[in-house]
Specification:
55% helix; single chain; alpha/beta; Rossmann fold; P-loop_NTPase; five-stranded parallel β-sheet
């Protein structure tokens, strides 16, 4: 069997409002020669049509499971287009665990599915996934960012709830010891000034590329 070339994938993880999308946009704008960037919309062509045609909430276990499975197939669909560049993707399958409703039972079901799928992706397709947790410890900073961008669609996902934010934030923090490969701090008051965050991100990328 022909050995597939290795593809490095870095998933930028974090709570809503942590700056994932802004960092992806920054990388795509200034460093596209080195990175192939997939923003959060890279699944929209399939998931949005499903969401409109079903009675399930987008954060239900059924929809989050579908989102997780589609994440893996879309990564493989994009590997040729990456042309050897590291693929940067906004969110990993672990995001499904963070946002699924109800949280605890859903997380227990999704976790083994995600871990086994990541192993299969690595062993059968030679795709090396690493996660970078974009960390914001100050939840007041997070909530201010969230309220500034809040719209009807985000309201439907409960993003206007401070309690929801704290629950998701606690989940991400609980994954620090055994899930996130690297952590980059993003406590910036001005989310548009991403030079320092990118520098820290690129240090992590250098470690991934060497392995």
């Amino acid at each position: 069997m022909r050995r597939l070339f290795r593809t490095n994938v870095i998933a930028i993880e974090g709570v809503h409002g942590s700056g994932k999308s802004s960092l992806c946009e920054y990388i795509k704008k200034f460093h596209s020669e080195q990175f192939y960037v997939l923003d959060e919309a890279f699944l929209n062509d399939t998931t949005q049509s499903v969401e409109k045609s079903t009675p399930f909430h987008p954060q239900s276990l059924i929809m989050e499971t579908m989102w997780t499975c589609r994440w893996f197939t879309r990564i493989l669909e994009h590997r040729e287009a990456s042309r050897g560049r590291t693929i940067i993707v906004d969110r990993s399958p672990y995001s499904a665990m963070a946002y699924v409703r109800p949280s605890e039972p859903g997380r227990d079901i999704l976790k083994p599915l995600i871990k086994d799928s990541l192993r299969e992706l690595r062993e059968s397709h030679n795709v090396n996934l690493k996660t970078i947790y974009l960390r914001v410890q100050d939840t007041d900073v997070l909530y201010r960012r969230i309220t500034e961008r809040l719209n009807e669609a985000r309201q439907e996902l409960n993003e206007g709830s401070k309690q929801h934010l704290l629950s998701v934030h606690n989940f991400y923090e609980s994954m620090m010891s055994d899930t996130w490969d690297y952590v980059v701090s993003n406590e910036l008051q001005d989310i548009t000034n991403l030079n320092k965050v990118y520098d820290d991100f690129n240090k992590c990328h250098s470690l991934v590329a060497c392995k």
